[in-house]
Amino acid sequence: MSRSAKALLLVLVAAAVAGGGALVVLVQHGVSARDEPTAMEAWIARRTRRLATPRNQREAKNPVPLTTEVVARARAHFADHCASCHGNDGHGKTNVGQNLYPKAPDMWLPTTQSLSDGELFSIIKNGVRLTGMPAWGGDTPEDDKETWELVHWIRHLPGITEVELQEMKDLNPKSRKEYEEEAEIRRFLAGGADAPASPPEHKH
Amino acid sequence: MRKVTIALSVLALAAVAGRLSAHAGHPHKALGTVGAVDASHVEIKTRDGKTVSVLLNADTKYLNGKAAAAATDVKVGQRVAVTYVEKDEKYVATEVSLGVTDAPADSKAHDHH
Predict the structure, then answer these.
(1) pTM of the full predicted structure?
(2) Per CATH, is B28-104 categorized as 2.40.50.320?
(3) Angle, nearest 10°, between helix axes B2-15 and A3-29?
(4) Contact A36 B10 (CB under 8 A)
(5) Which residues contact A55 (CB under 8 A, 6 or more apart)?
(6) Cβ of A5 under 8 Å from any chain B Cβ?
(7) Which of A60, A129, A183, B7: CA 20 to 30 A from B40?
């Protein structure tokens, strides 16, 4: 058997084993997003993501100078578009983020902070297939600039202050009903109104 | 070769089993006055006479308006808004917002004399 035929056979066997394994998992667990990825699955996913990111993107440095205005703009952007999954503090402890497969990462941890600026940029701009991370960036220089600003914000997250967190709460997208509920709660806490008759209420 | 490696990795990803984990449900909100409180839980008396017992832990955040507060700031008789999730059949507080403390009912009655 030639060397190339042996390589092809190896690939086919590996694919068959992987496919069989996937079938067993599907039969046992279905496609529920409640499961937690195993350490091996997470490792393979991270390696695959890294391999799939072209080297010039991985090694790109943030071209946007770090200023207080940039951080403030990125904070508002993150609160508006990202916090519904990642949380304002970036810990990912949100109703959506905790029920995705894989769960939204804790962005304070080395699994995020050890990524290069270019990798973070690529993830935000292009998204990640088979996860909850969409591709946010367009192809205009303005879009790229906003994405690089978000990279600065992700670096800033482990040092976020309580004042910044409170400011972000006012910038999170809310429905009219949520605004009304918040106003009702503020009135109640200030002593101005009774609590609703039948709490606990659902807050989706 | 790089494409083959990526393709095999994706296949392997699909083959690796996930494990079931505890599922935290939807956030709920309880508004009322504090009936009892200690380091591990708070009981909230709601207007319709129900009592909701919610666990407190190291991840629970406390707010007084927009300012950060502490677990020790929670007092019996105080108005609170508690956001909590249901986990392992228990209620766990994620955020406790503090409000004013209502005057005791008997002192209110005294004002009428």
Answers:
(1) 0.69
(2) yes
(3) 30
(4) no
(5) none
(6) no
(7) A183
CB nearest A14 (choices: B8, B24, B30)? B8
Whether omega for the bond prior to residue A54 falls within 30 degrees of 0, making it cis, is: no
Residue with tokens 């967190």: A165
Contact A35 B20 (CB under 8 A): yes
Residue B109 has pLDDT above 60, yes or no: no
- Of B20 and A143, the structure prediction assigns the larger pLDDT to A143
For residue B41, give every residue at least 6 positions away whose Cβ sits within 8 Å of its Cβ, in sequence order, or none.
Answer: B53, B54, B55, B56
In the predicted structure, residue A204 carries a pLDDT above the cut 50: no
- The CATH number assigned to the domain with range A37-173 reads 1.10.760
Chain B residues within an 8 Å CB radius of A22: 11, 14-15
Q: Tens digit of pLDDT for each residue in A120-168?
A: 999 999 999 989 999 998 889 999 999 999 999 999 999 999 889 989 9
